[in-house]
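Researcher: Next entry in the queue.
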Amino acid sequence: MEKDNSLLYTCYINDMDFIDELINCLNSIDYSEFDEDYIDELLDSRDSDPFDAEWCRVNKKINSLKNDKNYTNLNKEVQGKIREKVFMIIKQNTESELSDYVSDDFGLIYDSLIVNYKDEWLNKFIIEYKNRRIPAGEL
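Model: Structure for this entry, 139 residues:
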């Protein structure tokens, strides 16, 4: 499969269409390689810099952009449903705490769309999901 290096999320008029597309990609991942050792390595890579520092930086920036006008209770509800759906997909396929991480990722992606936040690292992060990979390490 060829890598898509464009700013993918700018091409979608409807944010939910984009989220649904990413969820479809998540469902298409081959989880047969996700044994305990692989998952441990993946989680360690995500909990270490540069990934952890970048994820936290983007999350902090997105949270600073949220306010009552651009991020409503409906957004919170929709984000919760997205996160729950993603959590169940990963839990069913890996039976691991990776489900918590990926759920957080999709919350981050959804929030970035709502507040219209764009960032080079975030784009690479999203492209990993688009290419049916769980983001980790240096992107």
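Model: The chain has one domain: 16-25+34-130.
Researcher: Noted, moving on.
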